Amino acid sequence: MVGENTNVRSPLLPLRHEQGDFFVCDIFDAAPKGDTASMAHPIFSLSTKPDTRPRHYESTDGQSFVEIKPSSDGLATVHDRDVLIYCISQVMAAINQGREISKTLRFKAYDLLVATNRGTDGRGYEQLRAAFERLRGTTISTNIVTGGKEQFDVFGLIDRARIVRETRDGRMQDVEIVLSDWVFNAIQGHEVLTLNRRYFQLRKPLERRLYELARKHCGHQKEWKIGLEKLRLKTGSSSTAKEFKRLLAKIIEDDQTHGHMPDYQFELRADIVVVSPKPEFKDAYTEEKPQLALFLKAETYERAKEAAPGWDVHYLETEWREWMTEPPRSPDGAFIGFCRKWFEKRGRP
Q1: pTM given for the model
Q2: How do strand 224-227 and strand 272-277 relate by DSSP bridges?
Q3: How far apart are CA 140 and CA 160, in angstroms?
């Protein structure tokens, strides 16, 4: 159990704020959300030191690519991603409440720090300032579609970050962020997934990346299998294959002891990694909305790709689950039918 009293330190970061503080801002009126495009691709660095290596990735079918180039400050890190998660969640909360949305967001830095389980001392604000610089400095060129729009030009993860107001000692108070078109298109297209709030307590960058991949690719399936080397590439890890396997095995061992990984469990079978939802993941969705707990067969996703060519079937799965009002008798057939009608109405993205 998480929080169990053992002689070994929990892999989770401690909760830095009282639970009530999590409701300071709108992010926890709903749940934290991440865009599926950057969850699926290794855009953020796992390194805790400045990472100045440019990256180039291509899909296995050669249809899409992404190039990531750092600034002199290094690539944006997995922990810098917290800023984007906060911003995406704010915009999605506005959409759900019927409010107008904009690429420009203005909020209190303190609220972001509290919501993402960061320290609110001077070091916390300095780390946030550095995150803004890396997010603005990291440039991407890609043809990955977000919100039905294919973008080829070079852009940053954010267009601008501005400190609007500071305290007398120079500590930021009000912050203004302008999201890139790529991120904003993903939000407008509802290409986002809800994240477990415990994500912000994950200590290791690799743990956060593994959770993102599990959330994106496993979702509500009974299991998702991926080769160890392919998983290493998808995480963006610079470790050798041998070292990556050791790191993964350690995370699996820690999770078996502490149960600290949110929503999903990982199993290493030779050079195959098997990911499956934990019981509490299904229970949480059942309580919130029964139809969200349905599991689909692995082959259903392949048939869904044929029914809606060009579309991200995991995005369509999210739309389908939100559209349902009651669980269907045949979830697999119902989902494929939904994909077919979606494609008939909208065509290729």
Answers
A1: 0.79
A2: antiparallel
A3: 15
